[in-house]
Amino acid sequence: MKILNIKKSSFENSGYRLDAKPYLSSGNIVLDKLKHCKYELTNVFAYSDDIFYGGRDKRYYVSNHENGIPFMGSSDMLKNDLFDLKLISKKLTKNLDNYLLDTGWILISRSGTIGNTTFTNELFKGKAASEHIIRVKPKNNVFSGYLYAYLSSKFGYNLLTQGSFGAVIQHIEPDFVGNIPVPLLPDDKQEKIHKLILEGAELRVEANKYLKEAIDYFNNKYAVNGITKIFNKKVSKLNFSWAAYNNNIECDKMYLENNEDEFVVLSSMVKDCFSPPMFKHIYLDKDNGHPFLTGAELTKFNKKFYRWLSKRGVKDINDYKVKKGTLLLYKSGNTDGGILGNVFITDDILEGACLSDHVIRIFTDDLSISYWLYAFFKSESGIRLLQKTATGSMIPFITTDRLMNLLVPKPNENFENISKLIGKYLELNVQSQLKENQAIDLIEKEIDAWQ
């Protein structure tokens, strides 16, 4: 039960409403908190050169990187890496410049799941984004990292998502974002927070360079060129189903064009592979439960815990916890740009967390083996091979039995280098998340202290 003491003026401002909802809405609670701000209040407009969203022209998708530009929607902007984005045509897409992003911008999802934010770095520059993403282009002489951290905090998020009377907003517009109040903390505090965000952004760029180098090794060595959608195949050569994605001929060519001695079955390289049983989701307060993430939340760069799982809903809570180096494979979805076959790896932030039963766990006895397999499964050929093992007509899914029989590259002379690249990637990626969270935490502690 929520309890709040309010003043007479609050009744007057709300039209003398007597129901609790408008007064207990998260947005109004934040606005009330800001009344106790000991600093001057400004707004997002004061920090910005422009606040806008991209064009709404018809988009034409292509499969060739030479003819297209990576394009992201509001969920894509939150992803840990931006390697698997769809491509829109450079030639056919009108007003293409209206779609393009630059560094140092703040992106805000404006419809659907609204209020999510991200700070653009070199990974975003030159990529295109949909009209469902609001761009905040900060002025050159402001602490843009501070503004981003504020909008990403629980206070900024509640102001972005809550109407003045507690109603959930279905979409937001640039003017609405521009008028959101921002406390003007002293310059030294703003600068400290700003630097943490910039340092985190730089670390993320550096981390992705290591990841890309590791993935590119497999993309070059085991290239799968294009996608053949219509093809002939002998019945005797068909896999376990007639579905096209189960008989991907590009994957067949990859095996045929390389020495068969280069591959081994996955089961020979891993200790165990399992997916825990379905369970009843019982959530508790933070201090009493175990941190829990869904499969979709695994895709995000900054993995924050919003749910805390009770051990009462499961047979053994340890089946749902993951250890560092464990490979995590999302086992269900569609085979055309969906999350099916996406692979993640447990880092220092994820270690000890509970994950959904939709996530297959792959254990090895050696972190280096985990890193090698992770780099391969992140490559285009690895993703295609994983999707090739899926079964089911309505919602394809991957079984552990078929997964364990998959042929994967065995370690070679590049094994040590690939393992080092992934290890460095994970180290810097964790540091990047910690920097961002430290900045946001400084703002939340500051505002929480106001009475």
From TrEMBL:
<comment type="similarity">
    <text>Belongs to the type-I restriction system S methylase family.</text>
</comment>
<dbReference type="InterPro" id="IPR000055">
    <property type="entry name" value="Restrct_endonuc_typeI_TRD"/>
</dbReference>
<dbReference type="Pfam" id="PF01420">
    <property type="entry name" value="Methylase_S"/>
</dbReference>
<dbReference type="InterPro" id="IPR044946">
    <property type="entry name" value="Restrct_endonuc_typeI_TRD_sf"/>
</dbReference>
<dbReference type="GO" id="GO:0004519">
    <property type="term" value="F:endonuclease activity"/>
</dbReference>
<protein>
    <submittedName>
        <fullName>Restriction endonuclease subunit S</fullName>
    </submittedName>
</protein>
<keyword id="KW-0680">Restriction system</keyword>
<feature type="domain" description="Type I restriction modification DNA specificity">
    <location>
        <begin position="65"/>
        <end position="195"/>
    </location>
</feature>
<keyword id="KW-0540">Nuclease</keyword>
<keyword id="KW-0238">DNA-binding</keyword>
<keyword id="KW-0378">Hydrolase</keyword>
<dbReference type="InterPro" id="IPR052021">
    <property type="entry name" value="Type-I_RS_S_subunit"/>
</dbReference>
<keyword id="KW-0255">Endonuclease</keyword>
